[in-house]
Amino acid sequence: MQIFLIGFMGVGKSTVGQVLAERRNIPFVDSDEWIERQTGKKVSDIFAQDGEAHFRELEKAFVIALGNNPAVVSCGGGLPCHNDLMSGLKTRGHVVYLEASLQELVRRLERGIETRPLLAGLSGEELCNMIAERLDRRKHVYEQADFCIHTDGKTVEQIVEELLSHIGH
Ligand code: S3P
23 has which bridge partners? Predict the structure, then answer.
């Protein structure tokens, strides 16, 4: 069984994924971490040196390399939105959209922009607009997930419980 967590940067896919993997007793895999290990480069350096298109190819290679091994997979925010990877994820397992309000995403991302090349150098209104525009473009893909969990105001444990109530404990 593979469980894919998708959603915008900063929504908590990795945090939720690690707890979920422990609960299900299957490995946790993070696409960004896999790419960094494979290439020996930080995601931000890949964007800066090789470009976004190359990074998207690496995400595709990640999905192929996963095979059918059981795992909870935290997918980079743009992964399902490129190279038609969403349909590939859906044929392999459960795809779960972790959703947060724009306000909440801005609040969380204000603290982590240095590790996120798409948001580098942005703050205040510019950051908010960038998130809103990108989210708007991606939403229709995220919404193809098997189900969506609203995360605003919920603890990690509550999110994991809600998720398990959909897919079984
Ligand atoms: C990206 C999200 C990031 C990372 C890269 C691009 C995106 O992952 O893959 O910076 O396009 O939304 P997280 O969603 O884990 O932050």
Answer: none
Q: Mind listing the domains of the chain with CATH numbers? A: 2-167 (3.40.50.300)
From the CA of 76, how far away is ligand 1's center (Å)?
A: 4
Closest ligand 1 atom number to CA of residue 11: 14
| Model pLDDT, residue 150 | 98
Closest residue CA from atom 16 of ligand 1: 9
Q: Which residues are within 8 A (CB) of 111 and not within 5 positions of it... i.e. 6 or more apart? A: none
Cα pseudo-dihedral 130, 131, 136, 137, rounded to 10: 70
68 alpha carbon – ligand 1 mean position (Å): 23
Q: How many beta carbons lie within 10 A of that of residue 105, not counting itself?
A: 24
- The protein residue whose alpha carbon is closest to atom 8 in ligand 1 is 76
Residues 82-95 have a mean pLDDT of 96
pLDDT in tens, 30-69: 999 999 999 999 999 999 999 999 999 999 999 999 999 9
